[in-house]
Amino acid sequence: YPSGNLAIIVVREENRLTCIVQEDKASNAKIQAVFNSSGRSTCCYPTGAVWINMTIEGGQYLDQAGGRVRRWTWPNSAMSSGPQVPLKPIFISLNRHVGVRILGQDKITVSFLAMGQQAKFNVGTRVQVSDVGRLRPPARLGEDELLLLAFRVRILRLFDRLRGCLDFPSNEQWDKIKPPAYLTTQTSKILQLCTTPDISDKLRSSVRAIVN
Description:
single chain, alpha+beta, 2 domains, seven-stranded antiparallel beta sheet, four-stranded antiparallel beta sheet, FAM194_C, ERIP6 protein
């Protein structure tokens, strides 16, 4: 960024690439978007709520309350059981310098513009279809990724609880307030990811302790 703060990070891990967009802050910068070459990507609102979530099957566009605005499936998706819904081009601004353009599974661009200079990163990917016409299963999330997702949900729940405390100072009121539906859904999805056989009991217990 013009401030000198790091804006975009590209990390290579074996054959996978991950592109991370951070907000313009010197310390404790929030992650605003993550794009993975395995086909999983997420963009977030400045509040931390999920804005766009994409998998090897397709994606969905959410409002800040967690409600789905639209969804789509990729043309080569063989795993989706529902009707094929085409993508309508999406253009969003993560902040005043970074924008995201989504035109297709392999046509996703992160654009950075500052001081008259522009840089573009192609973060799209084309998932290969196997010889039996089915998509390969998505790559398993690593330990760090699962813990990061769990801590993110924990932080969002704490922020929501703090807002509840400010709105309802009486303990009898805010203790009864339930978290937003999108946080409950995200918690359930993370716990579901921990049910796979390749997740250790220690990691499973750690994730459950964080989100609960």
